[in-house]
Amino acid sequence: MALDQSALLEVLDALKVADVGDRVRTAAETIYQALIEAELTDTIGAALHERTDVRTAQRNGHRTRTLSTTAGDLELRIPKLVSLFQPAVPAAQGPGCVGADAELASR
């Protein structure tokens, strides 16, 4: 799922006032979140609020997980489904997943 115009503007505003470390963390968090949402859309066959005949599941809220990276701790919203969904991002596999950078680099 691509970020819409207003979401991109919010991210840019946050990046303008943040120091370098926060900029990297915010950018990483935004990228990870977009990847998770894109993976979910591909998994269920429909975007958020989209009605299709090929939909395989329904979204059912989010759960918050912390992903520890070299950029800092990222707070990610992992989508819940009526059926089971485990994104490739290690944050969904347990709170405070340490060493996520190395695991993702090996994929």
Description:
With 107 residues, this protein is an alpha+beta fold. It has one domain. 41% of the residues lie in helices and 20% in strands. Strands 1-2 form a two-stranded antiparallel ribbon. A hairpin with a 2-residue loop joins strand 1 and strand 2. It is globular.
Short description:
The protein has helices at 5-17, 20-44, 100-105; strands at residues 59-69, 72-81.
Index terms:
single chain; 107 residues; two-stranded antiparallel sheet; globular
**Overall morphology:** globular
Give the strand order of the largest sheet, numbering strands 1, 2, ... along the chain.
Answer: 1-2
- Share of helix among residues? 40-55%
Mean pLDDT over the residues: 78
Q: Number of folding domains?
A: 1
Number of DSSP strands?
Answer: 2
Strand content: 15-25%
List SSEs in N-to-C order: HHEEH
Distance between the termini: 21 Å
Structural class, by secondary structure, is alpha+beta
